[in-house]
Structure formats: C-alpha cells, structure tokens
Amino acid sequence: MEKIRRIFYSLLAFIFSGCFSARIPADSFSIVNWNVQTFFDGNNDGTEYSNFKKSQNWGTESYKKRLEKLCAAINSINADVFVFEEIENSGILYDISNFLASKNWNNKENWRYCAFSKNPGDAIGCAVLSKFPISEITLHNLDIRSENSPQPSMRPLMQMKILFEGKTFCLFVNHWKSKSGGAEESEIWRNWQELVLAKKIAEQNESPAIACGDFNRDILEFNRISEASGENKNAQNIELCSKFENLEAENAKVSVYSPWIDNFDELEEPGSYYFNENWERIDHFFANDKIALENFEVLTDGEWCGENFIPKPYKIYTGEGYSDHLPIKCTVRVK
C-alpha cells in the first residue's frame, strides 16, 4: 500500500501591522485565484528556471516593474482574498504588501495577512493574501514509492483556516503536477493529489471548505456526478475521489460544486488558460455543501488580457505581459 506522508508543521503567516479600520460586516466575500507565471524576484538563488538564470534582461529593475504591475492588478480587482500560484518566495509577499500599503495608506481595508508554502529546493510555491485572519496552516506532501516511475517533485497541498465575520472556513490551495512530459504519463500523480484533496475535504465533515488553485486538469477531466439544474444553484456537480482500485477500502469520495459548469449544464466562457489555440479550464474553485460560490467569472477586463480574451504571458526579454493564465473570481458565502 502506498504511503502518504503528511507533513504537519506551522507555516509562517505574516501579519502586517498598521492603522487599519475594521471591515464592515457582510455575509459574503470575494476570492481570486491566479497563476501568475514564474514570478521570481530579482535575486539569483540557484533554484530559478534556466531561462531566468540565463537572461540578461532579468534582475532587480525588471522585478520591480513586474511587481508594480501585479500590485496595480491587485488594486484594480480588489478581492478580499487572493490565491497565487508560481510565487518564488515569501519575500515577494512582503514586497507586495509594502507596495500596496504605500499606495493605500488611508484605505479602510487592506490585505494584512498572508501565507506562503513551497518544499525545500523547489523553484516556486503558492501564496495567499487575505484581508481576514489566517491560522492553522498545514502542508500535506505525498511520498509514493511503489509506482513504476520515481515520484517527481510535486507541490504540497496547503491547508489553512480563515476567519470571516465570526465564521471559520477551511481553504485548500493546490498546484497539481503539470502535463509536461506527457499528459498520460503524469496523470498518475494528479490522481494521487486528487486522493489527498478528497480525503482532506471529506475530513471537514460539517465545516465549510473551499479548494482552489491550478490543477492542471480541465473541468471535463473530473468525475461528473449529476447534471445541474436551473433551479438548483450550487448543486454538487463534481466528485473528487480515489482513482486507485487497490485503495478501495480507503476510497475517499466527496461531492463538491464547480462554478465552471453553470446552472444549465453549460461551460462558462472563456477558459482560464489558452494552449494550442484551445481554451482550457484548469484553474478551479471547488466548494463543499457548506459554502455557496456565486458570481463566478473569468477576469478579462484588465491589462493582463489581450485580444479575444487571450491572456498576455510574461516575456522576460521584453518585460511585457502578466501571465499565461487568466485570474478567476467568485463570491463566497459561508452558509
């Protein structure tokens, strides 16, 4: 039987002090997920991708320009919680927070809390920027030793609790194994990551839970469990589960709702990722039945979006562009 090694240790949660007023109470908040595409700082730490290490166009100044553009996008979107994939280190979160505070010192609302995770030696990790307190941050790593091929480097599942208007909900941040090297060959590792996520959501029982991130798997590649109805908003339409027959005794199955599939069983347009002239929906929100996801949208009204809604990827040699993914946004209501 495969061994799933869970690493439980406190992850650094940064609390930025300052003269901020309390947030006006409300029954919902907004959340954005965005893969910001290899967002490295200006230092050479040795773990950066080779195209950055070899480029003469990358350094402190180019990083500052890219940081300013990202912060301008954050301000324009103005969500309550941002989840980012492909952030290099926690120092970038300090830079983001300091830049936002310097531009919004009199703003009654600011992003005072954040968290970051990546495994030692990895180039990039995941980050959360929040207006609400974050606590109980935990990482879940896989240690699989009986597949035909050695386990590749995979990012951990990040779990945390967020306190919103006296209610606590669980947030799971994901960045699953990419399809580089072959979609079929790498599918086994995404299946393992799905198993871990399904187990963790199922363990929440009656507690609200939402998962988001870059899953490197299109919504149509997940198990469908029912057709949505125009009169049944937020109907659970996806089953996260184990794909391994030999683990049937521990088979984790949990029903969740994905807003990519609307109330009439149609796919939302456009996707979040454009590859080989096709739209893919690989960036996701999934919620259990204790959370309602509303007003889902792919954010196409910004400088990060080009002609025909196609995202503007970041180009090292010109310094232009933002990311090869579009941000997705929805309103979250804790039931």
Shape: globular
| CATH first level | Alpha Beta
CATH-assigned homologous superfamily: Endonuclease/exonuclease/phosphatase
DSSP, total strands? 17
Mean pLDDT: 88
Structural class: alpha+beta
- In CATH, the topology is named Deoxyribonuclease I, Chain A
**How many separate structural domains?**
1
**Whole-angstrom Rg:** 19 Å
Would you kindly provide a written description of the structure presented here, covering whatever features stand out?
With 335 residues, the chain is of the alpha+beta class. The chain has a single domain (13-334), classed as Deoxyribonuclease I, Chain A (4-Layer Sandwich). It contains four helices and 17 strands. Strands 1-4-5-3-2-17-16 form a seven-stranded mixed sheet, with helices on one face. A five-stranded mixed sheet has the order 6-7-8-9-15, with helices on one face. Strand 4 and strand 5 (125-130) form a beta hairpin. The longest helix has 20 residues, at 183-202. The radius of gyration is 19 Å and the shape is globular. The two termini are 38 Å apart.
